[in-house]
Structure formats: C-alpha cells, structure tokens
Amino acid sequence: MRQSQALYFNAPGQVEIRSEAFLDPGAGEVSVRTLLSAISPGTEMLFYRGQIPQGMAVDAAISGMQQALSYPLKYGYSAVGEVCALGAGAHTSWLGRRVFAFHPHQDLFNVPLAELMPVPEDISTEDAVFLPNMETAVNLVMDGAPLIGEKIAVFGQGIVGLLTSALLVRFPLGGILAFDRFELRRQAAVRLGGVSCIDPARAGWLNEARAFLNAQNDEDGVDLGFEISGAPGALDQLLKLTAFGGRMIVGSWYGSKPVNLDLGGRFHRSRIRLASSQVSSIAPAYSGRWDRARRFATAWDMLRQVRPSGWITQRVALQQAAQAYRLLDEAPGETLQVVLTYA
C-alpha cells in the first residue's frame, strides 16, 4: 500500500512527520502531490507553543478541520500542488493542473474537487502559497474601510501585516505608520513605499509616532489602526495612538494568551470603536454583494500586483520541518515567510 508523509503537532514543542496509508481518490476526488506549503507563523506557533484554547474547533470554515483543538493535531492550510490522479467523475482536464488547497502539510493527499482552486497560469507557485494570508489582508482592509486622507497604523509586519500594508499603500491615504519589533520586517515594510516603521519596544515610541502623525494633543492620532502582531500588549499600544472617534481592527488571534486593556481612560471618552476581523466569514455589511468566491478573486488579483514571493526567507524540506518550527519559535526576527518543500 502506498504511503504519504504528513506533519503532526504531537504536543507543545513537538513536531513529527508520520507515514499514513494512501488510498486511491474516491468519487469526485483527485490526488494532489504537494509542491510547496507555507507555515503560518501566527496560528501554527500557537499550536507549537501550546497556546491554543481547548475545545475550540481547529477551523470551523475549512472542511475536515471542525474537530476540537487537541493533540496530536495535523494542521496547515496553505498547500500548492499538482493533480496526479483522478477519482470517478473527475474530468481529465484536471490531471497535471496546479491547484491550491486548504490542507495540512502533507506530500500527497486526496481532496474533493469542490475544495480545490486552480492556480492561475500567470501566478507562480511561490506567490500562490500566500493566498490564505492575502485573503486575510483583503478581509482586514474591507473591515477597516479606510477613507481618503486617513492616517493609518498597522501593528505587526509579519506576513499578514506586510500584505495589509501592501494593500493600504494603494489607497490615497494621509500616511501609513507600521510597527514591528524586528528589523527584517521593518525593512520589508519600508520597501513597500509610503510606509514608515517604528520599533514599538523602543523607549519613546509613542512620542515618535505622534511626531510622525503631527498629533496636536492626546486625542489626536490615527483614524484607523490594525492590530495584526499576535502580541496582546500591542492592542493597548494601538489604543494609546488612536484618535477621538477612531477605529481599531483586531486581526490577531491571541489563543489562550491573556489581553490586558486600559479601557478606563481615553477609550471611555474618545468614542473609539473596537472590532474583530476574521477571514472565515464575510462581514454582514458586505454579505449581500460579496461571497468568498468574489473575495478569492480579489485576493488572486492582489497577488498579481504585490508578488509576495520575495518574502520567502527559508525553504525547508518536509522531513526537516521540526527545524523550521524551532527557528520560528526561537529566532522569529530572522524570518518573514518559511515554506516547506517536497521532493
């Protein structure tokens, strides 16, 4: 019987590649041989560090991931591969086609055709693995709804933050101020053009930010802010920088990490609006005109424009995946996007 190789989180800090029996595809399914998969340094590091909230579904929006969070866990959600076998009912035109799947890290897998997306011919495999994070960035910008001339803050310049900044620079804004602790990420943000970047761990960061924004008083600041760092303390920093009547969009998933907010001061009197943004659904304000197919079409188009493959900093073979997770855990400042390769 043929075997496939799949990545499992066995326990906090423990990653294993397991062999699994691989069957022929069933009716309406195809087999996909993975070319590249992207590690999510946000969500997957919560699993790696044991910071997942017990009892919550792995991902309620992805087929096969509705089970409750618990170890051992097979996970991942960004795989690009080639269709290598067809089940009954699958048209021969699928054979050899490059496809994207929300699937765990695995070298060979079966998936229903309805859950696959063909990769457009003009988008490289390296750009295509950014699709889920680009969809998240599109969703964040839609939820934030930036207006002409507004001043924007983006806390966190990991991949989702960089993609969000890359979309925002295409708007006629009054300024974009990004924040990240790591020099590599700050440099990547500045290279986008139209983005200034500050280390939020540096003493005097708030005065530096207010000077950049030409803030006249404590109630002056950014009109719109995004918290995408995954660091609970960043949300309170964003609150300090948000102007009277401003909006705060939280895209981070903190898992079981506690979040402490000072809501007894400026927040109480400044009419600041705080909202969550999560890509597994469409905001009710847009659901009459938008569905996931339209949002994916937009995300593919944004990948054509941004071409984020240059942010791939490490390529690691699936069998050495444990090294990739140790790197992300111990030296996150040395990475932007880590991808797993498949022989």
Overall body shape: globular
What is the second-level CATH architecture of the largest domain? Alpha-Beta Complex
Write the CATH homologous superfamily of the largest domain: Medium-chain alcohol dehydrogenases, catalytic domain
Oligomeric category: single chain
Q: How large, in whole angstroms, is the Cα Rg?
A: 21 Å
Describe the main β-sheet briefly. Answer: 7 strands, mixed
Q: SSE order, as H and E? A: EEEHEEEEEHHEHEHEHEHEHEHEHE
Query: What ranges have pLDDT less than 50 throughout 5 or more consecutive residues?
Result: none
How much β-strand is present in the residues?
Answer: 25-35%
Let me know the average pLDDT: 92
Report the strand count: 16
Report on the structure:
- This protein folds into 2 domains: 3-119 and 307-341, Quinone Oxidoreductase, Chain A, domain 1, CATH 3.90.180.10; 138-276, Rossmann fold (3-Layer(aba) Sandwich), CATH 3.40.50.
- The chain has 10 helices and 16 strands.
- The chain has helices at 43-49, 125-128, 131-144, 159-168, 183-190, 205-213, 232-241, 266-269, 292-306, 321-330, and strands at 3-11, 14-21, 29-38, 73-74, 79-86, 98-101, 108-112, 116-118, 151-155, 175-179, 195-198, 222-227, 242-250, 273-276, 312-317, 337-341.
- Helix 3 (131-144) packs across helix 9 (292-306).
- The mean pLDDT is 92.
